[in-house]
Specification:
There is one protein chain. The protein folds into two domains: 226 residues, Aspartate Aminotransferase, domain 2 (3-Layer(aba) Sandwich), CATH 3.40.640.10; 128 residues, Alpha-Beta Complex (Aspartate Aminotransferase, domain 1), CATH 3.90.1150.10. The chain is built from 14 helices and 15 strands. Strand 10 and strand 11 form a beta hairpin. The chain is globular and about 70 Å long.
Length: 368
């Protein structure tokens, strides 16, 4: 029986052919394919504007540059990829790390509220593992504290809230098209916004602030996507719903099968949302289950089943954070998740029989 990996990364023949056509055309830089990808992605996500860029980190950087200034503070969950905080620093502001909910793994707004100061100007909720935050609750929080919202949607391609795309949310949603994501182009990113002024700022800041040929009216960077990447993205977007349907069907099998296994608790899906199922994560309670997260991962590997940890250490536990900001000991949920959660295969390269195989393996390990 073939090994079952934690992720499936492959381009279709159609995607390879499309990329080849762009390469052969010689029109490699940001151009018509990027423009078309932007229009299609905006429509799909429910946003007024979408702007392609070099990668998901660049998307965060551009969004922060548009709404924060040196000296500002931005609320960031500690349980996320470090780029969510790093790009706050790159914009000259200070990330203020918050704890997360122990069941959804998403930013804990009650904890965030305790950390608001007169310097706080933005909040950066993360749709971690594809689980969608409560857009309305965050919007209310932002309004009551006069904050901008930079949504880190690097893992939420196709996720929904109240049946609608998350691109409808203010003020920015940032996406990554890194190879591990539901949609990937190699390296690439996107920012969506519903504000025309933000659209203008980001669109030209990604290209050295050049608003006309050889005419620079803004400070900027080279953070553009290529047409080769965009043409792959367009085709992946066209089949995203199909890929999500497979992922969600696999997740349903996992959820039903794991429900009867003590010591394994899946991430709770936020109410009224459509989880993008970038990862299917569970908390492993070593005392109840019989072994810890690492031992379960090893036992699964021995049975030809991959797994992953996203992320084993929260941001505040990283050495660079200690060096820059000192140690922080008031984020217990983030630490607990990093030490105990595990991602099981759920990707669209597998089927429900494969998902059932994962359940059977976990049950066998639990039985000893």
């Amino acid at each position: 029986m073939a090994d079952l990996s934690i992720s499936e990364i492959s381009l279709t023949r159609e995607e390879v052919a499309a990329a080849t056509r762009v390469l052969e055309s010689g029109m490699l830089r940001q151009g018509k394919e990027c423009s078309a990808f932007e229009q299609e992605f905006a429509e799909y996500t429910g946003a007024a504007h979408a702007i392609t860029c070099a990668n998901g980190t660049a998307a965060l950087q551009l969004a922060y540059l548009a709404c924060v200034k040196p000296g500002d503070e931005v609320l960031v969950p500690s349980m996320t990829f470090i780029a969510t905080a790093n790009m706050v620093i790159a914009a000259g502001a200070t990330p203020i790390l918050c704890d997360v909910d122990p069941e959804t793994y998403l930013i804990d707004l009650a904890d965030a509220q305790k950390r608001v100061t007169d310097k706080t100007t933005a909040i950066a909720p993360v749709h971690l593992h594809g689980n969608i935050c409560d857009l309305d609750a965050v919007a209310d929080f932002a309004t009551s504290n006069d904050l901008k919202v930079v949504w880190d949607g690097a893992q939420c391609h196709g996720g929904t809230h109240d049946g609608q795309g998350v691109g409808r949310a203010a003020d920015f949603v940032t996406y990554s098209f890194y190879p591990s994501k539901n949609m990937f182009v190699g390296e690439g990113g996107m920012v969506t916004t519903n504000d025309p002024e933000y659209d203008h700022f980001i669109r030209f800041t990604r290209a050295h602030g050049q608003t006309a040929k050889n005419h620079f009216t803004m400070f900027g960077y080279n953070l553009r996507m290529t047409d080769v990447e965009a043409t792959i993205g367009r085709l992946q977007l066209a089949r995203l719903d199909e890929m999500l349907e497979i992922r969600r069907a696999n997740a349903a099998v996992l959820t039903e099968g794991l429900a009867g296994i003590e010591g394994i608790t899946p991430q709770r899906v936020t109410e009224n949302t459509g989880h993008a199922m970038h990862q299917y994560s569970v908390i492993v309670d070593a005392e109840t289950f019989g072994c810890d997260r690492s031992e379960l991962a090893t036992a699964l590997k021995e049975r030809g089943i991959g797994s992953g940890v996203h992320y084993p250490s929260a941001i505040h536990e990283q050495p660079i954070w200690h060096e820059m900001y000192g140690r922080q000991d008031d984020l217990p949920v983030s630490e607990h998740l990093g030490a105990n959660f595990l991602s099981l295969p759920v990707h669209h390269g597998m089927g429900v029989d494969d998902a059932a195989r994962v359940v059977d393996a976990v049950a066998e390990i639990a039985a000893g």
